[in-house]
Write the structure tokens for this entry.
Amino acid sequence: MKDRNQKILSSLISIVIGLAVGGVLVLVVGLLNSKIGIKGAWEGVRIIFAGILSTGRDAAGNLTWGFNSSNLGNMLFRATPLIMTGLSVAVAYQTGLFNIGAPGQYLMGTMASLMIALSIPTSVVPAWIVWFLALLGGMLAGAIWGAVPGMFKALLNINEVLACIMTNWIAANLVTWMFDISNFKNMAEGTKSGYIYKTTYNGVATAKLGLDKLFPGSQINGGIVVAIIIAILVYILMNRTTFGYQLKACGANRHAARYAGISDKRNIVLSMAIAGALAGCGASLYFLSGNTEFFWSTYQSLPSIGFNGIPVALLALNNPVAVIFTGIFMAMLDIVGLQLTNLTAYNEFITDVIIAVIVYLSAFSLVIRMWLAKRGKKKAEKKTETETKAEPAEGGTKA
Amino acid sequence: MDNTEDYVIEMLHITKVFPGIKANDDITLQLRRGEIHALLGENGAGKSTLMSVLFGLYQPEEGIIKKDGKEVRINDPNDATALHIGMVHQHFKLIDVFTVLDNIILGAEDTKMGFLQKKEARRKVQALSEKYGLQVDLDAKVEDITVGMQQRVEILKMLYRDNEVLIFDEPTAVLTPQEIDELMATMKGFAKEGKSILFISHKLNEIMEVSDRVTVLRKGRYVGTVNTKDTNKQELSNMMVGRPVQLEVVKTEAKPGESVLKVENLCVPSQIHKKNAVNNVSFEARAGEILCIAGIDGNGQTELVYGLTGLEKPSSGSITICGQDISHASIRKRGEYMSHIPEDRHKHGLVLDFTLEQNLVLQSFEEPRFQNHGFIRNDAVRSYAEGLIDKFDVRSGQGPVTKARSMSGGNQQKAIIARELDRDKPLIVAVQPTRGLDVGAIEYIHSQLVNERDEGKAVLLISLELDEVMSLSDRILVLYEGEIVGEFDPKKVSVQELGLYMAGAKRQGTEG
């Protein structure tokens, strides 16, 4: 219990440090830029801390604040894939593996999901079944793409980081190629090139579950609920089941697991497959929403959502339930960045740098935790010192 | 004696407190010039803490340290070096990828205008090495030399720095019997020269052989200092443990029953060289007997155990347990017939980052009593763990939820033994079950193994310690270069005779 409080505290402290440094950065950039000035800089700082609650500007040009349903809804919408890639990294990490392959798994999930959602005619199969198949397809594609580096690791003892980096780029090129020769390219809307149809083109979209009424004007849908449920299921899997026990045993000490008759090779492959399935599921939930379009010419870049799973997991100290909150926090930074660009004279590049600094510092929670633990130990030491000093006096009287 | 007053080091009333534990409580240790002074105590008695205080790694809360009669403050190892105090740590502090010479001069390099003067250093080290018979290859990398040679490097490091007080922290734990003999001789040579030696150990034989005086610690407290020639092993171990200890194993005559394990023409490949590490080995272990495989380390014991337990695939031969052929069975399948107390408790025995209770069910978490449709029954695991902890007296900071990593070596081993013996399998494979443990723990583990034997289990003991082999076993097989070179009855063979077989000087024509 005390341990848990310390973990939560360390994550909160690193978030505050990240925001504070981001605020200072905004201030400095603002003061150095004559277009922004003191007033603009102060506005910037306020947006960094509370941008999610900003509602724009009033007639007099002052910032207004309040419940911004579209901001909050979009935050939860964007958090959905981040939670999934965060889970992907966290699960792998708990089993002793570093899954830097989430971007590739995410891309493969995207491809499988979109192709299934767009190719099965909803006139024949009910849309919700197509949606479900697309989700499963995305998870399966991600799982396969995760299992590949897992197999290299298990059978040939090749470092999973190396294998993941390679599978990432293979995925980037494979996906581009596959869509290039496909007929899913959105040529209908004249000015567009390089985009794939939205899934709504085939009538497939994630159910809103009434969340759009709660957050009117936003992109939110039921995906966030699915992500939260999966996070809780992953937590249960890792902490309450014999399967999770085996996975963690293999991660913590492969030799001891083997000694106890646990198949280490099988478990390494399974860990990576689960991690891949989670990342692939994140892609499905994002692109099945119906209002997102996929830019298929990805061969030169990897999706940042995949990599952002790493800070999400780090900030959550790899706890699946905590990943829900850190994923939402990272999505909030996204929205805050947009607000900063839209409402003030800060351009999107400065914003990106500042947000990156906040993300970077937030992921320092492990360092903070070690510092807290050390401090706690010192306190305990002092306490026992005073206690033991009192003791000999008692012993003396006995003698 | 007129040299009574000539103390080179005096540690007076040292108290050192760690959170939750008083590691040293008012301990006094006086080291005479030119003596070998043994510091004896069980694991966790405070020996290493006391030496770390002397070496400047810890600051005591109370007490003073005197060097040559003058009070000194030792704030860090540099201060200790300046006072000519040197230490060989239990785990060597060497840089694996550096050469021997580089390791020796590291931290005490002679330079001229910023350039290393290695020639001078090499001459000095060579002279020292010849003078004391400490043979090392100065240009070999530390990772390529034997543990014994690494220890000589550590000793040369102390000599190179002209240390006159030498601390040896459990120096024999990692050495072969021959290397131990050499070390003892070297230590005696140092003492004759006027160097003073502090020798930390819990091995009574060595202490009796080499030391002049012994200071005994127990649970952080000072028990007493005695002259070695006025005492004996029994008295020392009683002082150390605080109760009369059974040094000899008490056991009745073995009543061997039917065959439990039958190994025929087993060959296991080596990971190091191309030949078989275990070559054409056949033997049988019977219920109700302790069969011991003796031999010098590295003669195929590890591979034999790997082959039996399934950690390594045998290249040929067959293994039968209780009539079942398990030559090609999985580790899990074999686990149904045997308990395995592994050689390396950190590599195979425990998941160090798991809690004690998680480690206690490492072999059995899939049994119905610990899981329900794949969900772990935490309450069942907890109560089972508490039962075992109680029964086997496994001590730890926080009971079942203690991280295995934070437990002492002796208690880690007890946890493994608790887990393995409680599984109640017909065959127990125990590989060096008492390595690195103190007298009290050894006594306990030996009696447990004898109990298991008396309950009709077959115990296969692999040990490098001849004392253990002679006192515990009912039958001895000697392994030399992967082959069984002799079978003996411990009551009818002498240690010297066994030694000849272990060294490969003799072998029986066929197995008995």
Summary: The two ends of chain A are 41 Å apart (CA to CA).
